Amino acid sequence: MHLEQMLLNLEKTWQKNMDYNNIDYNDLEFYSLMTAGEKHEAILESEFPDDMFKVSAGEVTYTETITTKIAMGKRQCDMLTFNDGVNKVVSDEIIALLKHNNITGWKTYPVEIRGVKKSYCGFQVTGRSGELIDPEKQSDDDFSYTGVKFDPESWDGSDIFFPMGTNLPIITKKLRDILLLQKFSNLEIKHIKEFNGYF
Predict the structure, then answer these.
(1) Which of 56, 74, 80, 140 is most exposed, with the fewest beta carbons within 10 Å of its own?
(2) How many helices (H) and strands (E) would you count in the chain?
(3) What does pTM read for this prediction?
(4) More confident position, 53 or 1
(5) Angle between the 173-182 and 92-100 helix axes, to the nearest 10 degrees?
(6) Are 129 and 170 in contact (CB under 8 A)?
(7) How far is the first Cα of the chain from the last one, in angstroms, to the nearest whole number?
(8) 74-123, pLDDT tens digit by residue?
(9) Partners of residue 161 on adjacent β-strands
(10) DSSP annotation string for 115-177
(11) What region does 117 belong to: left with phi over 0, alpha with psi -120 to 50, or beta?
């Protein structure tokens, strides 16, 4: 085996065994994508025939239209959530932008929201990375944390993805920049080092 190849193999081994809690996440351009909870946003009734987490993660495919209604609120933003807290719909304008820019890691299903004229599609995330790395607990009475981490080598390269075992949409800088340029409503985009969660 050539020395160059041996060094490459050693580097790969080191990368797999390194402590990702010590990565400087300021250098990684990944962002969480959530609904912003804008005032009076419409929240949809969750009426899925399948497990809500599997729907969100694109593990089921719908060709028939999913019919729903507004459960509360009234503002028809570009991104709306169902009252299961997991699934979302996005406006046709967002879908057109994703297609135009060849964004990867997602698929849709047809949705009809009763009494709503604006057009939406159900949104599923098919991109993946490895599991999130457990945040370090500072004390026994510490129930919150800031920042999420994962092994970047486990990422499949999609522009939008879920870390395995979660329904947390993470996006690339490319997608973040595209979305922010359009000023879509009800989108909250944060660097993953700023994401807030609970133990």
Answers:
(1) 140
(2) 4, 16
(3) 0.82
(4) 53
(5) 130
(6) yes
(7) 47
(8) 999 999 999 999 999 999 999 999 999 999 999 999 999 999 989 999 99
(9) 127, 170
(10) T--S-EEEEEE-EEE-PEEPPPP-STT--EEE--EE-GGG----SEEEETT----EEEHHHHH
(11) alpha
